[in-house]
Amino acid sequence: MQKHFRWSSSSLGWVLAILGGLFATDIPATDWLQWRGPTSDNHAQQDWTLPLRWNVQTGQNIQWKTAIDGRGHSTPIFVGDWIYLTTHDPSADVQALVRLDRNTGRILNKWAIHRNVGPIQMHSNNSGASPSPASDGQHVYVSFHNRNAIHVTAVTLQGRQVWQRRVCDFAPQAFEFGYGASPIIEGELLIVAAEFDGDDSGIYALDLDTGKPVWKIERPINLNFASAIVAPIAGERLLVIAGAETMDAYDPVTGQRRWSVPTTTEAICGTIVWDDRRLLISGGNPTPGTWCINAAGEHRELWSNRVMCYEQSLLANNGYVYAVADSGVAYCWRTHDGREMWKERLFGGGISASPLLVGDELLVASERGEVYVLAANPDRFEMRAQNQTGESIFASPVAVDDTLYIRSGIQEDGKRQEYLIAISEKP
Description:
The protein is mostly beta strands. 4% of the residues lie in helices and 44% in strands. The longest helix has 15 residues, at 9-23.
């Protein structure tokens, strides 16, 4: 099959930079093309800086605030001049992809991907648009759960549908909590995790150009909500995922299993993080805990504790891992032995968003709309700022080109109105 040449995020960035110099256009410097960003670890670019403080009500350091119809927990992605995010609007009975202008926040398009969606059985803290989109720089790929199945759609950057595929059945029986795994791009493949207590439970690879199935990884018939991730681990690229009481690694090109370590618990929501040769995950059903394994040589569990980060992922950086538990307590552990470096209570509890690293700072958003700025310092806990940003946050914040983007909900006229908010010190 003939393949089209694809820009990687790095090559696309170089081309945009050259074009910007030639034509003096105001083209953004960097893209954020899928869940957990260019390096798959929720690390923003090291030299970006964000304001410590902002105020949505007064407009302090608020570049723009745009109302989004419906609800979604997906993070936005950034492709050139545009922002893409998904939403589910039950009142209009539609699951949609929204395109915004990156500089002004103005909504340019809202494309209905699925109409007549009908009711979706899910947890009250979930949404009908929780998976984040992914892009190869030419297309946007979105995944939705409806009518007891997972559907993936590819559209051009201008919204023209290229293909749509019903990937598999998805009809959980034990707990109808919904769906949340984000699709990721690896080479010429779109990788979609869909694990539940049914026969179609698995990880699926689709051809980016056509949507045709390439391979399927059979996964246990077990409720699991984690997004798979591809990462450079112990010198090779591996597709990794946790859940069903294991941590597993696969060849991302063929789907063949490389190794499996008995550890963790049955249901995992977070995405695996890594520190070169060590992989870490946290979860909580039915056994709460955080686990670390050795991913090179003798694959085995190195350490564990009973701290539960159920919805939110961990964040690893320079030999340490940072966590904010469901209880609202923040932790720092040393990755090679699990030694607790510090712990401190931030809030009373309730967190779904994953921490974000920007330079030497961690950003942590609670379900009550609080955003904490912490020093990414293993030696001591340091709170640098706290900012109320709306009244509820479930989507993970994203930082691109010296700007922080937060998807937040605010009660207006007795109902929740969702906003995408751009925060920056830019004039």
